[in-house]
Design a protein that fits this description.
CATH architecture of the largest domain in chain B: Orthogonal Bundle
Strand order of the largest sheet of chain B: 1-2-5-4-3
CATH class of the largest domain in chain B: Mainly Alpha
CATH topology of chain A: Rossmann fold
Shape of chain B: globular
Distance between the termini of chain A: 52 Å
Order of helices and strands of chain A: HHEHEEHEHEH
Helix content of chain A: 25-40%
CATH architecture of chain A: 3-Layer(aba) Sandwich
Oligomer: heterodimer
Largest interface: A-B, 50 and 56 residues
Structural class of chain A: alpha/beta
Structural class of chain B: alpha+beta
Radius of gyration of chain B: 23 Å
Number of strands of chain B: 15
CATH topology of the largest domain in chain B: Cytochrome-c3 Hydrogenase, chain B
Strand order of the largest sheet of chain A: 2-1-3-4-5
Number of domains of chain A: 1
Chain lengths: 174, 528
């Protein structure tokens, strides 16, 4: 049976087709940076750097760009960075949004649920100081007033390339 | 008196005293009535126009007239106009008689009016707050009142939100959220299950409430555009456009044809990247990862095209009151043509991949059905309504530039996940057609793109845009100083979230992510 499958695949050759990505831009420095990143993560985090994301009132654009980091274009996973479903599995907490009053407790609890050592990384203008929402009656404004921040990634929203470059720079300095 | 025909007919049979009738724009008519007639007229119009309550909001006018004013907005689809019923409410012990008993689509709006203004909807059976959560916000602070100055100090009122409970032998409650497993906005879902099937789902939202409507007050129209772009990041263009259209009505600005074409083009690009995202999401949520990744590349291609056209992947910074910033020249037009044909080919391959997979179709077929009756009763709008047989598209009702572009309103009957997927797929194809038509017309169109707004004028108006989820509605009042006095925003998600809680009934929890993704509603747009 397995011999037949093997025969069949030798006869037919490679049946998957390479995707046409000529129009898409992923700058070559990402590849170079990625290789460095992989080495760093291998040395400092034992192969993988796991991130848990929390939205504390963002508009969703930052989320969209964080998700884009994992698409086949940038594929941050191949460098050893992965987004996980539980704070218990995470090395770092990625926070977006201006911390609405409703989300402050959930943010703290998520942070507390993480094992040590842990880092908090803020993404986007809102998480830095509240952005356009800083004067609102319902936001705390800055994540740094609630949790210790190790890194901020600026932008509204930051592009996937910017997110990857900042993470790489950050891991170098740990 | 020159009342419109439908109103004449109502007045012939019913005794209603109309205090004031105004039609400031061809597509908006304001009818002011006494307190006792308000409910009656709303009911009659609701039936007569076959329209859900599209907007329902209050305004604090106590400094001018010692009164609050309520506005209840219906849509007259045939005559292509908004019908707005107004009522004044006295400022001591403010209250009104609830419409929600008979018009369900008013219910959420009444809860909103109550928590933001402290105006009691008497007779509404559900008075729980939507956005100001009981755990962090004490009673008695009403942020949208003009005399609200600061939030309560560090209070923990220790109040608890009451979920609707299902009781009985073998009933389990499954709470999920607000922090979810994926990279997604916060919401709390409480499932009651009996065995496998969901018998009740209660969705508690408001987690991303940022007080957008209050922040907008006191801003100029030009400052406000940036805030509108941050209300729901995936609809940045739709939101800024809805606001600009309202403001342009107030300022009597004629937007040049070229700008209108560019706006249609960008709006369709926004629709395309979001639909691609959702089609991928639906595939991902049944574990069909190859097409999911393929769709994410299509989305990425459109985002990169956006960046090349205007410098922003999410189409921010384009709209201004009076037109758009930045033209699309010949080279950019060619770029769009090239990219579109590639995207179209990729998209057709993706569609083929999905619809030819029997196991995939088996998962989405007859999953998460939303019936036409539910759609009408709840006031579901946009794509979710079109998938269940209600073919309302604001691009046809209040078309603007779309009047001169030919396109079909995509409609399905089944109301299940498959129907919503099909509508998305077909809308992408229509969007490509619309963009092509825009490009053709840009060639022959005069180069002017921005109309200078001479001087800020006082007034109020509705702006409405059929964004990819559905109609984004914005009512704005601008004062004599050119500052925003009050702004009411309604996202299509506002009613559609409730639709989701009906669509999942009888389905199993593992199919919930699938149902959820097929609606793909906005947390931040709903919570404001």
């Amino acid at each position: 049976m397995s011999l037949n499958i093997l025969k069949n695949s030798i006869r037919k050759g490679n049946v998957t087709i390479a995707l046409d990505t000529s129009g898409l831009v992923c700058p070559p420095e990402i590849e170079k940076m990625g290789r460095e990143l992989k080495k760093l993560i291998h040395a400092k985090f034992g192969r993988s750097f796991h991130i848990r994301e929390v939205d504390t009132g963002s508009c969703g654009a930052c989320e969209s760009e964080i998700i884009a980091c994992s698409n086949p274009m940038y594929d941050i996973q191949r460098f050893g960075i992965d987004f996980v479903a539980s704070p218990r599995h995470a090395d770092a907490l990625l926070v977006t949004g201006p911390v609405s009053k409703n989300m402050a407790l959930a943010l703290k609890k998520t942070y507390e649920a993480m094992p040590e050592p842990k880092f908090v990384i803020t993404v986007g203008e809102c998480a830095f100081d509240g952005g356009v929402f800083k004067e609102s009656y319902y936001v705390h404004g800055a994540v740094k007033d609630i949790l210790p921040i190790a890194l901020h990634i600026p932008g509204c929203p930051p592009t996937p390339i910017s997110i990857i470059l900042h993470l790489s720079q950050f891991l170098k300095n740990i | 008196m020159g009342y419109p025909k439908f109103l004449e007919e109502i007045l012939n049979t019913e005794k209603i005293n109309i205090l004031e009738f105004r039609q400031p724009y061809p597509d908006e008519m304001y009818i002011k009535v006494e307190e006792k007639d308000f409910g009656k007229l709303c009911h009659l119009l609701h039936k007569r126009l076959n329209s859900a309550v599209k907007m329902f909001f209050a305004e604090d006018l106590r400094t001018e007239s010692k009164k609050y004013t309520l506005y209840c907005v219906f849509l007259n689809e045939q005559k292509r106009s908004w019908v707005i019923i107004q009522q004044d409410i006295s400022s001591d012990n403010p209250h009104f008689s609830s419409l929600a008993k008979d018009i369900h689509s008013a219910s959420l709006f009444e809860r909103e009016i109550r928590e933001m203004f402290g105006i009691e909807p008497q007779g509404n059976p559900d008075l729980r707050r939507l956005r100001l959560h009981d755990e962090v916000w004490p009673q008695g602070f009403y942020p949208l009142r003009k005399d609200f100055t600061h939030s309560p100090e560090n209070s923990s009122p220790n109040l608890q939100y009451k979920f609707n409970r299902v009781e009985g032998e073998g009933i389990f409650e499954v709470p999920v959220g607000p922090v979810h497993a994926g990279i997604i906005g916060p919401g709390h879902f409480r499932f009651s299950v009996a065995g496998e099937p969901i018998i009740n789902l209660e969705i508690r939202l408001g987690w991303t409430h940022r007080g957008v409507e209050k922040i907008l007050e006191g801003k100029t129209a030009f400052e406000a555009v940036k805030i509108f772009e941050c209300i729901s990041g995936d609809t940045a263009f739709g939101y800024s456009l809805a606001f600009c259209q309202g403001a342009e009505k107030i300022f009597c600005a004629n937007v040049p044809v070229r700008s209108q074409l560019l706006r249609a083009l960008y709006l369709e690009l926004e629709r395309m990247y979001n639909h691609a995202n959702d089609i991928g999401g639906i595939a991902l949520d049944v574990g069909f990862s190859f097409p999911a990744q393929f769709a994410s590349l299509i989305k990425e291609a459109i985002l990169q095209l956006n960046e090349k056209l205007c410098g922003s992947r999410y189409l921010k910074g384009i709209n201004v009151v009076g037109g758009v910033r930045g033209d699309i020249d010949k080279t950019k037009q060619e770029l769009i043509c090239q990219e579109l044909s590639k995207i179209k080919n990729d998209f057709l391959a993706l569609e083929e991949m999905l619809f030819s997979s029997v196991s995939f179709m088996d998962r989405i077929d007859s999953t998460g059905i939303l019936r036409a009756k539910t759609i009408r009763d709840l006031g579901i709008t946009g794509l979710a309504a079109r998938s269940g047989g209600i073919g309302l598209d604001m691009r046809k009702v209040l078309p603007g530039i779309y009047d001169s572009l030919s396109f079909k309103v995509i409609k399905e009957q089944a109301g299940d996940v498959a129907a919503r997927l099909k509508v998305r797929c077909n809308e992408i194809k229509e969007s490509i057609n619309i963009i092509k038509q825009c490009l053709e017309r840009l060639n022959t169109c005069p180069p002017q793109i921005e109309q200078k707004v001479q001087r800020a004028q006082e007034g109020f108006a509705i702006g409405c845009v059929e964004a990819w989820r559905g109609p984004v509605r914005v009512w704005t009042r601008i004062n004599a100083q050119g500052k925003i006095e009050r702004c009411k925003i309604v996202d299509p998600s506002f009613h559609n979230w409730e639709g989701l809680s009906f669509a999942v009934l009888g389905n199993i929890i593992p199919d919930f992510p699938l149902c959820n993704k097929s609606f793909d509603l906005s947390y931040s747009g709903n919570d404001l």
